[in-house]
Amino acid sequence: MNKTNCIPAERRFTIMQFNERFPDDDACLDWLMEKRYPGGIATCSYCRVERKHHRIASKKAYACDYCGTYISPMAGTIFEKSSTSLRLWFYAMYLMASTRCGVSAKQVQRETGVTYKTAWRMFKQIRSMLKDDETGLGGPDSHGVEMDETYFGGVRRGVKGKPGAGDKKKTAIVGIVERQGRIRAMTAHDTKSATLLGMVKTHILPDTTVFTDEYQPYDGISHMKNGYTHKRIKHSEKIYVIGDIHTNSIEGFWSLLKGGIRGVYHSVGKSYLQSYLDEYTFRYNRRNVNKPMFTCFLEQVIEKAE
C-alpha cells in the first residue's frame, strides 16, 4: 500500500494544491508577509510606529505607506540572503513533508534542477528550524515515559551485551517518549550512568513513571530526588511486555528512524545526525495533528523567525 494513502484526507496537501496556492515567488512572498505581518501592518523602522506596508513590484520587499522605508518578510528566516527562488524553498519543504521518512537532496536536485550542493544546503537549513522546544516530558498525570538508547553508524557489534556499546564508529542516541505524547531524541557521547541520569533530570518532569530495559546505567533512576517511579522490562530474558511495563513506543520510533535514514539517506555523518533526529521527532510529535505536515513546516518558518 502506498504510504501516502494512509494519511487522513485532512492531512494531505497535494501537488495540485501546492501549485495552486504557490504558483510563483510572489505568492510565496505574499504568504510570508501575511503570516508575519497580518494585513501588511508592521512597525516601520523609521517612523517607529505601526504602519500599513505595500508590495514593491521590483523588489522582494514592502514599503511603509507613509515614509517608504522597506521591510522584508524574509528577514530573520532561513530564506534571508538566499539567491535561490523562494518557490523552490517552499517546494523543497513540500517534498520533505510529503512522506513519512523525508526525501534526499538528490531527489530535490532531480526535480528542481538546482545543484546538489544547493539542494543539500537547503535541506540543512530546513532541518535547522525543525528542532522542537525542550519543555519537560511526562509528569504525574501522564501515562509515563519510556527511555532507551540505541546506536547508529557502522556494522560492528558492541560489547557488554549492548550492540554498539564501546564502538567508536557508532554514535549513541538516547530517546525519551511520552506514552501517547511527545518524543525527544538526542545524540550522546556515551551511555554511562552519569549521562543517562543527567538526561532524566533535564528532560523528565518530577513524579513521572519511567519505563526502561534492564541496562545497568538506569539503576539510579529510582534513587533520584525527583520522585520518579522506575519500572523495567528484562529484554535479556526475552521478556518484552508485562502488563504496562514495556518499551514498545520508543522501540517503534527507533525502527522508523533507522529504516528511514538507511532507506532514504543511506548514511549520515555524526556531525549532522542530530539535525536528522530533529526532523524525525518533529514529524512524530505532530502525528496526530489534523493538518498537512507541509503546513506544520511552513508554520515553523514563522515560529523560528528572528
Automatic annotation (TrEMBL):
Protein name: IS1595 family transposase
Signal peptide residues on this chain, from the entry's feature table: none
InterPro entries documented for this protein: IS1016-like_transposase (IPR053164), Tnp_ISXO2-like (IPR024445), Transposase_Zn_ribbon (IPR024442)
Limits of the ISXO2-like transposase domain: 136-285
Organism: Acidicapsa dinghuensis
